[in-house]
Design brief:
Elements: H1 7-18, H2 23-30, H3 34-57
Helix pairs in contact: 1-2, 1-3, 2-3
Length: 72
Protein backbone atom coordinates (compact mmCIF):
# COMPACT_ATOMS: atom_id res chain seq x y z
CA UNK A 1 0.00 0.00 0.00
CA UNK A 2 1.73 3.15 -1.19
CA UNK A 3 0.16 6.55 -0.66
CA UNK A 4 0.73 9.50 -2.97
CA UNK A 5 1.76 12.13 -0.46
CA UNK A 6 4.46 14.67 -1.16
CA UNK A 7 7.48 14.10 1.10
CA UNK A 8 6.86 17.37 3.00
CA UNK A 9 3.21 16.45 3.54
CA UNK A 10 4.20 12.99 4.76
CA UNK A 11 6.63 14.62 7.20
CA UNK A 12 3.87 16.94 8.42
CA UNK A 13 1.61 13.92 9.05
CA UNK A 14 4.44 12.17 10.94
CA UNK A 15 5.19 15.21 13.06
CA UNK A 16 1.57 15.66 14.07
CA UNK A 17 0.28 12.11 14.39
CA UNK A 18 3.43 10.18 15.28
CA UNK A 19 5.47 12.72 17.23
CA UNK A 20 2.51 14.55 18.77
CA UNK A 21 3.34 18.06 17.58
CA UNK A 22 0.65 20.70 17.26
CA UNK A 23 0.28 22.14 13.76
CA UNK A 24 2.00 25.40 14.72
CA UNK A 25 4.95 23.45 16.16
CA UNK A 26 5.22 21.30 13.03
CA UNK A 27 5.13 24.51 10.99
CA UNK A 28 8.24 25.76 12.78
CA UNK A 29 10.07 22.47 12.15
CA UNK A 30 9.13 22.59 8.46
CA UNK A 31 9.85 26.30 8.08
CA UNK A 32 6.36 27.30 6.96
CA UNK A 33 3.66 29.49 8.46
CA UNK A 34 1.11 27.98 10.83
CA UNK A 35 -1.68 28.65 8.33
CA UNK A 36 0.30 26.93 5.56
CA UNK A 37 0.82 23.91 7.81
CA UNK A 38 -2.91 23.72 8.61
CA UNK A 39 -3.80 24.02 4.92
CA UNK A 40 -1.28 21.35 3.91
CA UNK A 41 -2.51 19.10 6.72
CA UNK A 42 -6.07 19.42 5.49
CA UNK A 43 -5.04 18.54 1.93
CA UNK A 44 -2.85 15.64 3.12
CA UNK A 45 -5.73 14.21 5.16
CA UNK A 46 -8.00 14.45 2.12
CA UNK A 47 -5.40 12.65 0.00
CA UNK A 48 -5.03 9.87 2.58
CA UNK A 49 -8.79 9.57 2.96
CA UNK A 50 -9.20 9.20 -0.82
CA UNK A 51 -6.33 6.70 -1.06
CA UNK A 52 -7.73 4.61 1.80
CA UNK A 53 -11.17 4.62 0.21
CA UNK A 54 -9.75 3.35 -3.08
CA UNK A 55 -7.72 0.71 -1.23
CA UNK A 56 -10.74 -0.47 0.76
CA UNK A 57 -13.04 -0.47 -2.27
CA UNK A 58 -10.75 -2.67 -4.38
CA UNK A 59 -11.71 -6.34 -4.30
CA UNK A 60 -9.01 -8.66 -3.03
CA UNK A 61 -7.60 -11.22 -5.43
CA UNK A 62 -8.01 -14.10 -2.99
CA UNK A 63 -9.43 -14.40 0.45
CA UNK A 64 -8.60 -17.44 2.51
CA UNK A 65 -11.19 -19.40 4.41
CA UNK A 66 -12.97 -17.60 7.20
CA UNK A 67 -11.61 -18.17 10.67
CA UNK A 68 -13.52 -21.07 12.16
CA UNK A 69 -14.99 -21.97 8.78
CA UNK A 70 -15.03 -25.40 7.27
CA UNK A 71 -12.09 -25.67 4.90
CA UNK A 72 -12.12 -28.85 2.82
Amino acid sequence: MAFKLKPDDAELIRLIYWDGFHSHEAAIVLGVSASAARSRLSKARATLRAELKVELDEPTAHRGPAVGGNAL
